[in-house]
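Q: Entry one of two.
A:
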Amino acid sequence: MGKQPQSIQEGIVERVVDGDTVTVITANQTKLRIRMLGIDAPETPKGTKFPGQPYGPEAEVYLKQLVEDKRVRSAPPQRLMSWPTIAQRFEDEGIDPSSPNASS
């Protein structure tokens, strides 16, 4: 079986959920919740039931600085084509949040 083409999604980051998950609004107003592959950020607090993990809020703030309100593109990795909410690439003018040099 040959490789299937990747489904590229484009939109504006409406909200950063935590250090590795964002909500993107596409041109046709579809909301996509995208978790970035290769990034395992600490969890942020979830009300009174989950206090979060150390540095979770800092990871969220950092990702907001990189991508909030910016146009982005994402593509699911080939092996997870049935899970389009996991992004292999997440780009805005060459920014790759998984890169150690993302803030430069």
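Q: Entry two of two.
A:
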Amino acid sequence: MKVLHSTTSEDEKHTDRELAHKWKTIDWNQTRTQVNRLQTRIAKATREEKWNLVKRLQYLLTHSYFAKILAIRKVTQNTCIRPPKSDPVGSRKIDPVPAIIVRSVIKRSIVYRCL
């Protein structure tokens, strides 16, 4: 990818091959553990009716790096158990993760904010 007027510094730019390697080397057990731990803490705080803690933990979960990559993995590797009625072929596997999605999640240093 060649962009002449990119604001990304040279040391932050990654090739698709590097990003694919990073994606393949993610420890998915650790990812699931981290997300499950936050979800458990949310459930416990809800049972104890600590609503401020619930709100803080939900914010942590929605902004968590692990939750984001796990969500991307679930969506991209989804196999339909029951296909929709309009799908005559049956269950399908979604294409591998597009590089643009991986690029936006794996590069942790980028924070997008509204101007």
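A: Comment on entry two: The CA atoms of residues 1 and 15 lie 8 Å apart. Helices lie at 16-24, 28-47, 51-62, 65-76, 99-106.
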